[in-house]
Design a protein that fits this description.
Radius of gyration: 17 Å
Distance between the termini: 33 Å
Number of helices: 6
Helix content: 25-40%
CATH architecture of the largest domain: 2-Layer Sandwich
Shape: globular
Oligomer: single chain
CATH topology of the largest domain: Fructose-1,6-Bisphosphatase, Chain A, domain 1
């Protein structure tokens, strides 16, 4: 990682926000990507085009992985790579909800070393580097210390309500809430506004790369649903779900979630 990579990501994220807001609430063209991949809009593509042009011009030796770009396997041989989601939470964006984010990360090998998650409507910018604190608008983040699953405030989807995913055959009595942007969910836990976030379906790297570093630098544990460490810039860029919480609560979730056979 270069010393000013975080600054580069920050400036790109702010410009991404400016572009997105030109389309937000102005009925941008959108369509479904098919195969359960969800919607995409002309705004996603405009943000992606800017990010790819600006970031790759600034770091031509870095690999590139984006939700809205054709995957280039050359990234696998690069020492550093960008992993970006131009608009995380496209459904929210298209519904006029401000809970969408721009998630930008730099990896070194298989770990994230710099990350930015920016929500332009809410004026929120979360950031972290591998050797620095997790910040929100320049101020350190302090996560929840809650250790008990019961009544924990958890960001997750309705999929987690299915008893088949839990060892005991029943869903723990936590309080479930959802935000469209997966990156924002991790940041909200890092901020202490929620106690944990889990996803029991596969998670794309571009949704979680930047935010996973922010969560870790805030002092949280991050893993896939089986407890394995998250790795990035993989040939198949998906994690087998996620679990993000403070150490005791993270372990409580791992003890409760039914593991997926490997």
């Amino acid at each position: 990682m270069q010393a000013n990579d975080l600054t580069l990501l920050h400036e790109a994220a702010l410009e991404a926000g400016r572009i997105a807001l030109r389309y937000w609430k102005h009925a941008p063209d959108s369509w479904d990507k098919g195969d359960g991949a969800g919607p995409v809009s002309e705004a996603d593509l405009a943000v992606n085009a800017m990010l790819e042009a600006e970031l790759r011009a600034a770091r031509p030796d870095y690999g590139w992985l984006s939700e809205e770009s054709v995957d280039d396997p050359a990234r696998l041989a690069a020492k550093h790579s960008f992993i970006v989601d131009p608009i995380d939470g496209t459904r929210a964006f298209l519904n006029g909800d401000g809970g969408f984010a721009h998630a930008l990360a730099v990896t070194e090998g298989h770990r994230v070393v710099a990350g930015i998650v920016h929500l332009p409507v809410h004026g929120l910018t979360y950031s972290a580097t591998l050797d620095g604190p997790a910040l929100l608008n320049g101020k350190p983040l302090t996560p929840s210390q809650r250790a008990d699953l019961i009544d924990a405030k958890v960001l997750t989807s309705k999929l987690s309500d299915n008893p088949m995913h839990w060892r005991a055959g029943e869903v723990p009595a936590y309080k479930r809430t959802l935000r469209s942007s997966l990156a924002w969910r991790l940041c909200l836990v890092a901020e202490g506004r929620f106690d944990a976030t889990i996803s029991l379906r596969a998670a794309w790297e571009w949704d979680i790369a930047a935010a996973s570093l922010i969560a870790e630098r805030a002092g949280l544990r991050t893993s896939d649903r089986n407890g394995a460490a998250l790795r990035f810039n993989e040939a198949h860029p998906q994690a087998d779900g996620i679990v993000v919480a403070n150490a005791p609560l993270h372990q409580a979730f791992l003890d409760a979630i039914k593991p997926v056979p490997q």
